[in-house]
Amino acid sequence: MDLCHVPAAQEKGWYLALMAPNVKGPNYAWLDPSRLYCHPQGLQDCVADLLQPFQGDPIDMVAGIDAMGFILGAAAAAVLQKGFLAIRKAGHLCVQTVAQPYTDYSGREKVMEVRTDAISPGLRILLVDQWVETGGTMRAAIELVEQLGGVVAGVAAICIEDSEGGRWIRERYKCSHCVPSRLQPRFDHHQ
Predict the structure, then answer these.
(1) ∠40-170-167 over CA atoms, to 5°?
(2) Hey, what domains does the chain have and what are their CATH numbers?
(3) Measured at the alpha carbon of residue 135, what is the angle toward residues 131 and 137, in degrees to the nearest 5?
(4) Residues whose CB falls within 8 Å of the CB of residue 78, separated by 6 or more in sequence, listed in order
(5) How many helical (H) and strand (E) elements, i.e. helices and strands, does the chain have?
(6) With 0-12 CB in 10 A as exposed, 13-18 as middle and 19+ as buried, what is 169?
(7) What is the pTM of this model?
(8) What are the tens digits of pLDDT across the range 3-21?
């Protein structure tokens, strides 16, 4: 799809066609949304679709998960006119942090961290990431927010797969994603 083209029919998720399949192997996500982020209308519509279920909900801050969640999270924060918090992989913050170990989608053990002074008790945080595949990364972010007394106001990602971790998140938190229900099985099975 051309980076300037906008289809006449813009149903939810039309911009998913902008994503490119993985050509680098199993250590990478199976789809790359960077072309979607380059498309001005695609990015705007993606963020609007992610935020639509949260219209009217009290949200105090948006947190994006390292690293691709920073793009959608910062865009969502700008639309909501809220602050943005980066939840980072360990070792990138030069301030006091709290850490949470997790296993990412490729099975690698990692540590996520967040600054301790950004979340006060009761602060309502919308967590945003590019993709929830196994749910390990998002669950670590949830645990960090809750450990500091924050409240997870919701979880938003381009796709929340129907994995054990994805189901755990959807059962406990208000969620938003961009994949139309008729296409969800294809995304769950990486087709």
Answers:
(1) 110
(2) 30-188 (3.40.50.2020)
(3) 80
(4) 84
(5) 6, 9
(6) buried
(7) 0.92
(8) 566 666 678 899 998 888 7
